[in-house]
Amino acid sequence: MEDKFTLNLLRLLLARLEKISADSVWAHRASGVRGSLLRVLEKLEGDESVSRSDLKRLMELGFYILQKAAEEKIR
Question: What is the distance of C-alpha 43 from the center of its chain?
């Protein structure tokens, strides 16, 4: 199982992606990444193996989307 920090960071990322406004151009993309991250979280919580490179890629993509949605909001 992944370490607690990774699981907590993953849960925080999921919560933030869920809060992206439906009016944002990033909302649809966030929804897809969120679904993939939820599946990964379920596997991790069930002690199933998950590719670390896939987890890293998805988390980086999630943070990228958050950044872009935030930039869009402050314009």
Answer: 15
Of 71, 75, 59, whose CA–CA distance to 26 is shortest?
Answer: 71
Tell me the C-alpha distance between 38 and 47, whole Å: 14
Amino acid at 33: V
Q: Tokens 């998950």 — which residue?
A: 50
Tell me the average pLDDT across 46-60.
Answer: 95
| CB contact at 8 A, 5 and 34 | no
Tell me what the mean pLDDT of segment 71-75 comes to: 87
The distance in angstroms from the start CA to the end CA of the chain is: 40
Instruction: Please tell me the pTM assigned to this model.
Output: 0.90
Other beta carbons less than 10 A from residue 17's beta carbon: 24
